[in-house]
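Weekly sync, protein design subgroup
Attendees: M.S., D.O., the rotation student, P.L. (late)

Item 1: inverse folding check
M.S. brought a backbone from last month's batch and wanted to see whether the design step gives back something sensible before we order anything. D.O. pointed out we never logged the input encoding, so this time it goes straight into the notes. Structure tokens as presented (319 positions):
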């Protein structure tokens, strides 16, 4: 089994990925500064002795060099993932998402790692009206976050060409599922909606609610990452990780209301700067290169996510 590093391994996607790798028998080293990741997401020590947790930051080059020692494969999930936050504070967004990614790539090259799998984003496509979004489309970032993710992809390609470090960038569409944080001011829409409905509050929709998103369940995203680790040589390849279906936020609210048997109406506010109108991913390249197709239907994923949040709410009430 491989020795693997997961940056941001205590976060939403990173912790789900870490657990999947441990279940496969790999030794996993998690690097996280716990600014957005949660320690409770990686409390596996007794169950999975192959886990090592290091508190540190990808913006620290010494930390990156240290954690890469002996590592064969890197899953680079660490990031400041908020479009809104990047608009408010572009310098910090650049430092983490661009400089931090470069630190990871340099350290991986120096350590002789075989492959770096980079968590990129569909935000790179911007608001081009053409759907579905295909990887060959010209990028049109609308926020510092989106631009930073695109720069990370380009660094991956460059390192593959210059240093023969295997890299692959997975452009995540709108990932949702257990462990996603509903409490952050920059929380994604699904955990925010679920959290509000469970509290009996009106969900807040920025815009008219007719904007659409391609929602993909975290279990499918994890599987795409595992396939990206095991497939043959990949040198700078970029591919979408999407469901191939989109849904408006108003439709999403109706599905959630049905699951929760809720009659609560949303509150509509002005759109946020940097947000895109419609998103839908084409998955043909991931199918061809990784043999990846999503398997979890939206309603099934939403039901599992609601069950998770209801359980966490019950546990908090019992404390």
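Designed sequence read out in the meeting:
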């Amino acid at each position: 089994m491989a020795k693997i590093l997961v940056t941001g391994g205590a976060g939403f996607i990173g912790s789900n990925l870490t657990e999947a790798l441990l279940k496969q028998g790999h030794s996993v080293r998690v690097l996280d500064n716990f600014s957005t990741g949660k320690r409770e997401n990686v409390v596996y020590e007794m169950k999975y002795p192959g886990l090592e947790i290091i508190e540190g930051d990808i913006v620290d080059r010494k930390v990156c060099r240290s954690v890469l020692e002996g590592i064969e494969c890197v899953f680079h999930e660490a990031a400041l993932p908020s479009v809104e936050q990047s608009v408010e504070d572009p310098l910090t967004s650049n430092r983490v998402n661009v400089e931090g990614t470069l630190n990871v790539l340099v350290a991986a090259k120096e350590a002789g790692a075989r492959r770096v799998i980079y968590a990129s984003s569909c935000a790179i496509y911007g608001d081009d009206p053409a759907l579905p979004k295909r990887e060959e489309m010209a990028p049109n970032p609308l926020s510092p976050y989106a631009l930073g993710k695109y720069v990370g992809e380009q660094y991956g390609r460059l390192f593959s060409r210059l240093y023969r470090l295997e890299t692959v960038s997975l452009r995540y569409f709108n990932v949702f599922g257990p462990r996603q944080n509903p409490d952050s001011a920059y929380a994604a829409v699904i955990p925010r909606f679920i959290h509000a409905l469970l509290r009996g509050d009106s969900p807040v929709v920025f815009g008219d609610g007719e904007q659409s998103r391609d929602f993909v369940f975290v279990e499918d995203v994890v599987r795409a990452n595992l396939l990206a680790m095991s497939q043959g040589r990949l040198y700078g390849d970029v591919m979408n990780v999407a469901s191939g279906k989109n849904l408006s936020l108003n439709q999403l609210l109706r599905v959630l209301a049905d699951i929760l048997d809720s009659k609560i109406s949303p509150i509509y506010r002005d759109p946020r700067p940097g947000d895109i109108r419609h998103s839908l991913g084409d998955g043909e390249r991931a199918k061809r290169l990784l043999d990846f197709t999503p398997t979890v239907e939206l309603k099934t994923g939403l039901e599992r996510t609601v069950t998770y949040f209801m359980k966490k709410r019950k546990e908090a009430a019992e404390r």
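Discussion: The CA atoms of residues 72 and 113 lie 5 Å apart. The radius of gyration is 19 Å.
Action: P.L. to compare against the previous round before Friday.
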